[in-house]
Amino acid sequence: MKPKKDITIYDIAEKLKLSSATVSRALQNHPAINKKTKEKVQAAALTLGYRHNTFASSLRKQQTHTIGVVVHELKSSFITSVLAGIEKITSEAGYDLIIAHSSESFKKEAANALNLFHKRVDGLIASLSFDTTGLEHFKPFQEKGIPIVFFDRVEENSESTKVVIDNYKCGYEATSHLISQGCKRIVLVTADLKRNVYKRRYMGYKDALFDNDIPFIENHVLIKDLSEQGGMEAAKQILKMKPRPDGVFVTNDFSAAVCMQTLKENGMKVPEDIAIVGFNNDAIGKIVEPQLTTIDYPGVDMGTIAARHLIDHLKGVASIENTSTIVIHSDLIIRKSSMRK
Fold first, then answer.
1. All domains of the chain, ordered by start, with CATH?
2. Which keywords does this chain's UniProt record carry (predicted)?
């Protein structure tokens, strides 16, 4: 079937015997047009199937009223909560979102960034993939003065605006809590230490051991992808260790839950034989038995703050260059999985 031609403001003007300028202003809710005329124009536009040409309007104004978001995955509850925070602020400010995910690939992340640049987004919010090194692929945005806010996984030494939690403090507190419960052989299950979040948590873990006169053991640090498979693999390695560890800090709740389940299936009691702490405060931590001690990672707050900072800059309320790093508060939530005392 042959598609119908697009309805224009001239078609509406002809139908209502009004000037095209009056129709245009009525559709933009201009205060100079009276309420009755606006209602007639908007009703006619709906009846005729008129669509506003956002693209043409954007070209004239040099703004698209869209924000690009690049994330490293979409299936985690943390990322979902961050996106909820971003969407709340951007929708209130009249901006649409274009969301792209890298699937933990630098190559795909770079392609996503270029695609969003060509789509002329007004600003960008991004979290880096596992294997991203450097920020060269974001240079076109910087050269055009398009603001970028990075969150969670960031390049710590860059001058870009970053929204993070104190991952070092969180790693230190999680490990110190296990030590306070009598644990002396504590395993850390984490991801690639090239990424800032995992490196900082590792440093916090290591310093907590040192400050409590507990020796650091290299093979007690298990680098995994923090998936279901990674949690199972970590548990199987723990079961083979001699002497067997009495505490484990997993820097992801889902992987921690899988690790805990695998240990229990192999005869270990939690927390009596081994105490467990996760990270993120995902919903799964309240479902597993025993409930999982974890670090609260306030994703909604992170998304809200990143988006508000970007929108304020776009509206000329604040300068993005004046803020390098924003640190969001996070807490240790103690539940039964680590309570040996």
1. 9-52 (1.10.260.40), 64-164+299-328 (3.40.50.2300), 167-297+332-338 (3.40.50.2300)
2. DNA-binding, Transcription, Transcription regulation
